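Journal club side-thread
Mid-discussion, someone asked how the predicted structure for our own chain would compare to the paper's figures. Pasting it here so we can look after the session.
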Amino acid sequence: MKIKVLSLMFLLLGFTSCLKNQADGVQVLDVATYEKKMTQPDVQLVDVRTPEEFSQGHIENAVNIDFMADDFDAKVASLDKEKPVMVYCKSGGRSAKASARLKELGFKTITDLEGGITNWTSEEKPTVK
């Protein structure tokens, strides 16, 4: 009985967290879905890690805009708010915060990579240096 109740709670929690991400205007996608979406036209791919982390390996065609840097807002101002923005970080924490900030700044379509580049590389997806 306890297992059924716990299973139901986890299912409900997962469902509501997905709804929250949709309601916030930010999609959080698994690696396979994120990779497919990256091929859509006009996608702006943004790595929000530090320049040092970025230089150790990043997804091809990503631009590095460090979320923790003082000039984050100024640098993302160069992006088109009407075109899809796809963000990622190391494991998902900073990109979630960056996604929220992008939403506040008026970006329309924001997608976050679930688990960040850690999940990307664990699924043996390519990176470049």
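Post-session note: Helices lie at 2-23, 31-38, 51-55, 72-76, 93-104, 116-122.
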